[in-house]
Amino acid sequence: MTPGSGFTAPAALTDLAEIVHVTFSEDPSWLVAVQLRFKEGFLQVEVSPDDDTVEVSFDALHRPALRHWASESVSISMNERYENLLGSDSAWWWLLRNQHQYEDGFQIELGPASSTTTFQYLAIASRLYLRHVAEANQSTAEPRPSSITDDQVSPKSAERAPM
Q1: How far is it, in rounded angstroms, from Cα 143 to Cα 163?
Q2: For the whole model, what pTM was predicted?
């Protein structure tokens, strides 16, 4: 990850075997951690309720202990929901830092390079929000035609120009 973050893991994680969502015991929709078990070990992302940052840890042998939510949480297996991702590898993951320099997000890419699934976990108000990151549809962008030079006006901009 980033220098100084205290997080170290193997350069690549292979053969995803389990996905566990850890939720606040009083509200099962309140995600406080996610735990991923790979062949190389356990990767965990936990939200800190003190400053709404993510704490990422890795342990080759055991599921990392929760630092903030251990007595107030329930673990829920997500293997059925994400069964199409089991067996996947991850060559890319990111610790995300916002404009205020808080590390409040984690992103992981799962699957073969030809067909990946990317999840993003954002820490907001003492909980994790899971987002599925999709590739932007580049066909909806309106590129500038290559036949027009900088000093020419495109037909579309001419239509909008005041008369």
Answers
A1: 25
A2: 0.79
